[in-house]
Amino acid sequence: MRSVLVIIISLINSASAIAQLPYFAGTVGDGKMYGYSSLKVRPGVNKQETYTTFQYGLGDHFATGIDLYTGPDCAYWGGLVRYGLNINKWYNVGAQVTPSFDLNHRFEFSYLTSALYMNGAMTANGRLFWCSNTWWVINKEADNTFTNNEYLGYTIPLKHGCSITPMIGTIHSWKFDKNIDLTAGFYYSFNSWNLYVWSNDVLTSTPRFIIGLDFAL
Fold this sequence. Notes:
Layout: H1 2-15, E1 33-42, E2 45-58, E3 62-71, E4 74-86, E5 92-102, E6 108-121, E7 128-139, E8 145-154, E9 156-157, E10 163-173, E11 181-190, E12 193-200, E13 208-216
């Protein structure tokens, strides 16, 4: 019974592992490679997590790739397919499907993550923008989860083509049957790289802090 409970808890944690930072609709672009890696920590709690993904652009709208999530006593590998459509500056939409497999249990199927990404500008210069991520996770050994994330961001240009973008948002279930999670952070853009400093569960006794780095080449 204890081992089953550990698996269920691990699945719930891993299913939401990538759902704190904002994801945008567009894909990396034809023939380009996108990579992202992050470390998640809760000060005072021995519960470190990592998430890494690599994606390759197949045309202007499609991408495929792999991801890897690790947490306390668990590790999952996933293969993903992603689509993104930039309609105009005000509205863009994308979707992603990722089946994930348990590396600690004979590579068995563990959960399927489906995501809907939307974002767009709120001002003509595009500096103020909105972003929405909708997540539907089908778990093999636990209840399915349905969550939505909404964000507002503002890009501040800096010298030499760099910028910093603070963002704030909320994470909540579709049913609104739990406390709404406040999430906030920023990313610093330089050349083809972005450095992320993020947080969620900030209103709880064990907030989570995230440091991440991505690139598109």
